[in-house]
Write a structure and sequence with these properties.
Layout (H helix, E strand, L loop, with lengths): L1 E5 H11 L9 H15 L3 E6 L4 H13 L4 E7 L3 H10 L12 H10 L8 E4 L5 H19 L14 E6 L10 H11 L1
Parallel strand pairs: 1-2, 2-5, 3-4, 3-5
Helix pairs in contact: 1-2, 2-3, 6-7
């Protein structure tokens, strides 16, 4: 069975506990890395969904997979159409009660802070595609990427038919990530 980890969900749970308020900073990511590591050690497929402008957070997700000796596929989800991107950001709702969504200016600020990718990855452009189409394209790309995923690990990947997946979106509108949990199950079924 696949495991879908959303940093937004982790952050909101921390806020609901009363120990912090938004923004909780890196704590949600650190909890996410620990959860992902535990799931990977149990040989479960993990899809980690987060907004990762700084390279250090992308690197930490990757290190989590490498330390578990599993394959990793890094996926960057973008929306190349600025008007569509803005429409998605300003019209979306959340399925996580109490989670404050960033407004358009905050999304633009995050984009300015974005560090360039330095590793091979799968890029999915959601512009002009429905969430279901984007999910299908992502899943197909993940399976095509399986051929190069094995060589991304510093240590040999543990023998397993499963591909461990890291998923990221840069506020491409939550339309892009709506069905990511479904992707975890689909990745497991196809692998």
């Amino acid at each position: 069975m696949g495991k879908h980890l959303r940093v937004d969900t982790i952050d909101q749970a921390i806020v609901r506990s009363g120990v912090a308020r938004h923004s909780v900073g890196p704590v949600g990511y650190v909890v996410g890395y620990a959860l992902a590591g535990g799931h990977l050690q149990q040989e479960l497929t993990v899809i980690a969904e987060s907004v990762d402008p700084p390279g250090v957070t992308r690197g930490a997700w990757r290190r989590t997979a490498v330390e578990a000796s599993v394959r990793v596929v890094e996926v960057e989800v973008v929306c190349s159409d600025p008007a569509e991107h803005r429409r998605r950001v300003t019209s979306r709702s959340t399925d996580t009660p109490g989670l404050p969504l960033p407004d358009w200016q905050q999304v633009i600020s995050r984009e300015r802070e974005r560090e360039p990718w330095i590793r091979e990855r799968v890029v999915i452009d959601t512009a002009g595609h429905s969430p279901q189409q984007s999910l299908a394209r992502s899943t197909a790309a993940w399976h095509r990427a399986d051929g190069w995923a094995g060589r991304l690990c510093k240590r040999p990947a543990r023998p397993s038919p499963r591909v461990r997946l890291a998923f990221e979106h840069l506020d491409a509108g939550t339309d892009a990530g709506t069905d990511v949990g479904e992707a975890a199950d689909h990745a497991e079924a196809v692998a």
